[in-house]
Specification:
Length: about 325
């Protein structure tokens, strides 16, 4: 199949621009939407008796969970697991609007935060975690959609009919030869376009630059969309069904979330271009996910051995 048949990614990461480099981004909007959906779902679960968390405390809990669990945990996880070189420039850690969050780090952050919150407010930790886990795939869905809009975390080369070309791969340090080739072709069109950043920007409104990149870039799996569907939609439907249609003790849903998410992540990572050095034969995402599978099964076993139930599922 000719490369001209593939979609060339040219979405703008800004919702709108106030200046050339400043304005609200879709990445930030993803977190806002995740927060609003999480609040709505957790409020419903509390009202229906699935969550021991009082309805009046939902906004307080979800706000601090988003801040300390997701934002702090996710960002620190990204730095420690994927980009430790950022520690040499501590201010770069604060620039979360540029992207760079770790789902594994966010999960660790949420586990620690829910443990703290449950003890402080005398609420069952596993029940609190279960209901938070039901809402978590919604955030993962919006996050992966934002990754796609940003054109980052793309997949491995492929020739499937739905493959796409991602200009941001020219920005990767290991793609120097490819980037130099693209720059040499771009300068023939416009000498002012003499860097990969300018090429990526020009692609959004310059058909000639599109043709340059179509000739340079390999088609790749849109792995961000695979993850949005599997880690977001599929995982949410599984957890929602178990929460609302099955009588399971507190802790089972947390275990299911950790283990099913990890298994889906291990699978989808086979289609995703590694964004950090491999650990043996596995990507870092796969390697860390093996531990989540074990942790998830641990939660399930513990829940079955000493079962407690949310208010709605307690025997009358």
């Amino acid at each position: 199949m000719n490369n001209l048949a593939y979609y060339l990614h040219n979405l703008d990461p800004f919702i709108f621009r106030i200046t050339e480099s400043f304005g609200p981004r879709w990445y930030g909007m993803a977190y806002v939407l995740a927060f609003l959906c999480g609040y709505a779902l957790l409020t419903w679960l509390s009202r229906q008796g699935y969550a021991d968390l009082p309805q009046a405390q939902v906004s307080d809990f979800i706000t601090w969970a988003a801040l300390f669990g997701v934002m702090v945990g996710g960002r620190l996880g990204y730095v420690l697991f994927y980009k430790p070189e950022m520690l040499r420039d501590p201010l770069s850690i604060l620039r979360v609007w540029e992207g760079g969050m770790s789902s594994h780090g966010g999960m660790i952050g949420l586990v620690l935060f829910t443990l703290y919150y449950s003890r402080k407010h005398h609420i069952g930790w596993t029940n609190l975690g279960d209901n938070l886990c039901v809402t978590a795939p919604i955030g993962l869905f919006f996050g992966r959609c934002a990754n796609f809009i940003n054109g980052e975390l793309y997949g491995r080369p492929t020739n499937v009919p739905w493959a796409m070309q991602f200009p941001k791969e020219l920005l990767e340090p290991g793609n120097t030869a490819q980037a130099d080739h693209a720059i040499s072709l771009a300068e023939q069109i416009n000498p002012a376009i003499n860097s990969t950043d300018l090429i990526v920007e020009a692609t959004r409104n310059n058909p000639q630059m599109e043709e340059v990149l179509r000739a340079v870039l390999p088609p790749r799996h849109p792995s961000q969309l695979y993850e949005a569907f599997l880690e977001g939609v599929v995982l949410f439907l599984i957890l929602w069904f178990v929460r609302t249609r099955m009588r399971q003790p507190n802790g089972v849903i947390t275990g299911l979330f950790l283990s099913v998410y990890a298994i889906l992540r291990i699978v989808v990572e086979t289609f995703r271009e590694p964004d950090s050095p491999m650990i043996g034969m596995f990507t870092r995402g796969q390697f860390f996910s093996f531990f989540l599978v074990a942790l998830g099964f641990g939660f399930i076993v513990a829940a079955k051995l000493r079962p407690t139930y949310p208010i709605k599922l307690q025997r009358r």
